[in-house]
Amino acid sequence: MIGAPERREPARRLTPYCTGDCVTHFADSSFFVALLNKRDHHHKKAQEIFSDVLNGKYGKLVTSDYILDEGMTVTRQKTKDYEAAMKAGRMIKDSAYTKMTYIIKVYVEDAYKSYKEHTDKTLSFTDWTSYHVIKFKGLSGIISFDEDFDEVDIPRIPGKTG
How far apart are CA 112 and CA 82, in angstroms? Predict the structure, then answer.
């Protein structure tokens, strides 16, 4: 009788994102939305962080296809502007400073398990997928305006506000 295949964990740091002392951060959709929406109350801070990104402070940003989905959807909902949503998509998917990670089955399974087990946390399912990408790839932290990430063991830029 053939048994179920063993569950395999993705290798940590599947690809080296930086060499030497470089740090690499995951970029959340809240960062991209704030950066592109001038009415967002985090817009100015997002611009400051983006300037640091362009200057190499955070290495090459890692993001995911789930963030692409969220970023384009939320940008269009908030701005009512198709072109702004497409700009968000290009920024997340096609830019020189981001590397897209695709959410594979093991990330989905682990995110589901975390979501189910951590009923005291307010992270969304997508946030949990981001959390597991960060952990598996050994990233330095997350660039996000979502304070729910303060509930877990990942450094967040810009950090707690209060």
Answer: 31
Q: What are the E-state strand segments in 70-160?
A: 98-101, 141-143, 156-157
User: What residues does each domain of the chain span?
Assistant: 25-155
Give the chain's length.
162
Query: Please, are residues 114 and 135 in contact by the beta-carbon 8 Å criterion?
Result: no
Please give the structure tokens belonging to residue 60. 């090459």
- Cα distances from 152 to residues 100, 134, 143, in angstroms, run 23, 12, 14
- What are the tens digits of pLDDT across the range 112-156? 999 999 999 999 999 999 999 999 998 999 999 999 999 999 999
Is domain 25-155 classified as CATH 3.40.50.1010?
yes
- Asked whether the beta carbons of 36 and 88 are under 8 A apart, the reply is yes
Q: What is the pTM of this model?
A: 0.84
